[in-house]
Amino acid sequence: MKLNYKQVSDTGQPMIILHGVFGSLDNWATISKSIADAGYAVYLVDGRNHGRSSHDDEFTYPAMAADLHEFIQDHGLTNPVIVGHSMGGKTVMQYAMEYPGTYDKLAIIDIGPKAYPLHHESILDGLNAIPLAELKNRQQADDVFSAYEPIGAVRQFLLKNLYRTDDEGFDWRFNLPVLTRSIANVGVDIPYLRIVEEPTLFMRGANSGYVKDKDWKNIKELFANAELSTIPRAGHWVHAEQPKMFVEVLVKFLSEH
Questions:
Q1: Which of 18, 48, 109, 178 is the most exposed place for a label (fewest CB within 10 A)?
Q2: Which residue among 32, 86, 208, 239 is the active-site one?
Q3: 236 is annotated as an active-site residue
Q4: b/e for 156-191, b at 16 or more Cβ within 10 A?
């Protein structure tokens, strides 16, 4: 699948950044400029069924890894750094297993290769409860959604995917039917296909529970040259909550390996 993307800079080593579930490349628009200033040609990519990339019934990590491989080939990128947050991080891990020799270093943000239980049900229930055909404005959508998701910042993030159509109606950027049907695929474990030798940074938020201390043994068995960095005062959205420290840690790791 041809993925929608935005190239932030064309100078330096190529870096591809992949967003998480329900997100889009826009989530990285601001921080990517700081990364580019550190000497990287940054490519922000919309995953399949997200943002402005195509919708498709297949929504699995092997499919997303294949999309990434196609993107790298189409753009002639040599030894890119690949960065992924949450679902994007799982995509990076799947890619690392399947496509050795096509990348330089990896950075995986607040996610591990293990399986995670379903935990997006209320969000999906709320998104599906929003009556798109009857919507007059975004406030109506937020009013409906607030019965399912009490945190305003979370609602705001998710409702960024709501856009005006040409006929002045509303629709979703992401493929809500497929995400609803296939959300269990987002939490599956990444298969052990080989030992990844390339330098890999795992970055987690100190206030997040996605990557626990007890997970590290399993991670090191799969990613032999992995390092773990814990960012204080950050939860799952490490790059959004501590952007300056995120860039410093990422650039330092890449410069040292």
A1: 178
A2: 86
A3: yes
A4: ebbbebbeeeeeeebebbbbbebbeeebebbbeebe
